[in-house]
Design a protein that fits this description.
alpha+beta, 5 strands, single chain, Alpha-Beta Plaits
């Protein structure tokens, strides 16, 4: 879930969604998650519909042979099967969650118009038993084919309009047309009520599940993201940066002389200081792929996507100044009379040969350099030290750094 959502999960639950639509990016996230969750069943449904369609054609040869005179079996197979198979194939495309609903909406609109024509032609030829299939197809649009609620209503509304237009062209008696349209209207009203209740329940369950997941990813004290969310996001952001060839920056921040602060002012004051620093850091991670998290103890981390060294150093400088402006007195600090932080900045161009753990290691090394330089400052590194390995740091200045192959 993106942190750029215009409305939080809790706020959306409290406000409700009477139009069956979320606000902001929640709607896109909901549709994407629902499509992926139901994808397996959707493919099964498409395969079953194809099999049922072929079986119906075989049954028609015996029960309603007159249909073959209106539309040859080969023509029905040549329309129905390609539509369903094409829909099945679309579910395997890269952007299936976007393209499938569009395709199936167009395909089913055309299918309903074709079925209406066959039904009306059969009725005028003395065979009224085809009409219920139009009703069944409309039910399938609501519950089987994976269409969003609003799209399903639009498709079936067009289907009813097509039925009425074809009936008028073919000269169906007004009384019969009214009877069929009433049946179509009743079917849609019942399906709308059922589909609305079903989607409302799904949306509520999704919001509650997402809120629970978000709670599990938040730090209990500061309210910002925790280490678990940081690790997950960094891996995902790293992979995206590799695909899109975008630079990535990581800021590791540590409160200066925090143990001395706790010893002098007490742990409750220390907790309030942690909250204040966390709030400052969160203000600098507002873009969709940026993230501020509590890394552990008095350490914090900020991920900056598509950020070059100059961008990261500017943001780090603003963070340092914002923390100093909090004005939290720290008389036992050797860095300043107020609470300050030190920041290590790592800026790299992610590549397949490297790993996100190397980025963390590089930022950690930069943080050590900032502490060695007197604290209350930021130090940036772009290339790993030669022979760098997790947990081991060369206590040397940044001017002596040697480029390595990358981790």
């Amino acid at each position: 879930m993106s942190e750029a959502d215009t409305l939080s999960l809790t706020e959306q639950l409290q406000r409700g969604f009477h139009g069956l639509r979320f606000e902001g990016q929640l709607e896109a996230a909901w549709r994407r998650d629902q499509f992926r969750e139901r994808l397996r069943y959707l493919r099964i449904n498409l395969a079953l519909l194809a099999a049922i369609g072929l079986a119906v054609i075989e049954v028609d040869r015996v029960v309603m042979p007159a249909i073959g005179g209106i539309v040859p079996d080969l023509a029905r197979v040549g329309v129905m099967l390609p539509l369903l198979l094409a829909g099945f194939a679309v579910t395997f495309t890269r952007r299936a969650d976007t393209w499938y609903p569009r395709y199936i909406a167009i395909a089913m609109t055309a299918a309903l118009a074709a079925m209406s024509w066959v039904s009306i032609a059969a009725f005028t030829g003395g065979e009224p038993r085809v009409f219920p299939r139009v009703l069944l197809a409309m039910v399938a649009v609501y519950f089987v084919l994976g269409l969003p609620f609003r799209s399903a209503i639009a498709v079936n509304a067009l289907g009813v309009a097509a039925f009425a237009a074809i009936a008028a062209v073919k000269g169906m008696p007004t009384t019969d047309l009214a009877h069929f349209l009433l049946a179509l209207a009743i079917t849609n009203v019942i399906c709308v009520a059922g589909a609305w209740n079903l989607e409302h329940a799904r949306r509520t369950a999704w919001l509650e599940g997402q809120r629970l997941a978000e709670t599990a990813m938040q730090d209990g004290l500061t309210g910002i993201h925790n280490r678990r969310r940081f690790d997950d996001r960094l891996q995902r952001t790293w992979a995206q940066a590799v695909r899109e060839r975008r630079p990535l920056a990581l800021l590791l921040a540590d409160i200066d002389h925090f143990k001395a602060f706790n010893d002098r002012y007490g742990h409750q004051a220390g907790d309030e200081a942690l909250k204040a620093v966390a709030e400052v850091l969160s203000r600098f991670a507002r873009r969709p792929l940026d993230l501020a998290a509590r890394y552990g103890g008095e350490e914090f981390a900020v991920i900056l996507f598509d950020a070059k060294r100059g961008d990261a150093e500017r943001i780090a400088g603003e963070i340092l100044e914002a923390v100093r402006r909090l004005g939290i007195v720290h008389q036992d600090s050797a860095a300043a009379p107020v609470l300050t932080i030190s920041i290590g900045i790592a800026c790299v161009q992610p590549a397949v040969r490297r790993s996100w753990s190397g980025l963390v290691q590089l930022a950690d090394q930069a943080l050590y350099a900032a502490k060695d330089g007197g604290r209350n400052r930021a130090v940036a590194l772009e290339r790993e030290y030669e022979h760098m390995q997790t947990g081991y740091f060369h206590r040397i200045g940044t001017s002596r750094q040697e480029p390595g192959e990358g981790q």
